[in-house]
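debug: dumping io for the single-chain case to check the tokenizer round-trip. Nothing else runs in this session.
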Amino acid sequence: MEINLHPRNVKIVGAPMDLGQQRRGVDMGPSAVRYAGLYDRIEQLGHTVHDVGNIPVAGRDEDDVRRERWVETEGGGLRHLHAVTAACHGIYTLASACDAADFPIFLGGDHSMAIGTISGMAAKGPLGVIWIDAHGDFNTPDTSPSGNIHGMPMAVLTGLGHPDLVNLGTPGAKLRAQDIVMIAIRDLDLQERIALSHSGIIVYTMRDIDELGMATVARRALARLNRLPRIHVSLDMDALEPAVAAGVGTPVTGGLTFREAHLLMEILAESEKVCSLDIVEVNPILDEGNRTAEVAVALTASLLGQQIL
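debug: decoded output
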């Protein structure tokens, strides 16, 4: 195992939340990734590792959460708005308190937690985001067919959506469109597709990856964000082909291969600009022998400097 020449102080934080979507099981994602050996794998690379445990998250079956299962909004509605907001605020508080030398890894949980993680990291200064996902997560309450908040975090982070979410931590948008690159996108709702195409966000779909190759896409993403001092990577495991990562709640065929995902992480690591990571939507109930969590651990190792030679 290679020893990394640039040791980091890595903090592992769990956010066992399944409130942003309807399918149960992703709240067990942090435990699955830990069980797959995340701590030891990172430590073997020469980094210092601290697992600070899980943030408190209300259970879906708690009385208060059940009572506010659906919140009506103008033009639509949201599921579990107040509970998701409270959980994301806890994540925000922890993320914004991290030292500049820390490399936090946030284990989800559904992707709505990125409202807290990215808001917290952005509170510390200019931040670029590489969003690796089958989905754009650019819905708002009036475009979402389901009202599931895990389909909305990128819209929220750019200032679109319910004010309780948009104003989390600090008022208003946390990211500019020109500071975001999406990779592996292949499944968008109709209105979401229209909004995203007009947003100014750079989107590399799976067709782009097929035509250009992952190395070109990764390097173009970094060139786009090169002016920024820090990059946050938000990895939804459904970005990968379901044959590689079956344990996700919303699988979409035609995703990243195992090697494409590793190459992306290896090139991002070489930039030395990545400062934090989300790993979301791991659902061990739907998995085969915890394989998806094991792949997540392997990808994390590549992002933190593991190389073939």
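debug: round-trip ok. The longest helix spans residues 81-96.
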